[in-house]
Design brief:
This protein has 71 residues and is mostly helical. It is 51% helix and 0% strand. It has a domain of 48 residues.
């Protein structure tokens, strides 16, 4: 199962006190979606906040779909 809060590039336990350093899978997926949205013509029709919200929705949908294939 894909946990959206799992770090995408985890730091080894002995290398840091906090293993949550870096981006989570959800954050990385949202950033990638936002990058794609911003590079298209659609970004001219929506506010930055709307684009960010849409990117997070896309990330959540991707995580849900990935979890379906792993069941």
């Amino acid at each position: 199962m894909t946990n959206p809060l799992t770090p995408i590039f985890p730091v080894p336990q002995d290398a840091a006190l906090d293993t949550s350093l870096g981006l989570s899978k959800r954050e990385l997926f949202a950033a990638m979606a936002m990058q794609g949205i911003c590079s298209s013509d659609i970004n001219n029709r929506f506010s930055s906040r709307e684009i960010a919200q849409w990117a997070v929705i896309q990330a959540d949908i991707l995580i849900d779909e990935l979890n379906k294939t792993q069941e």
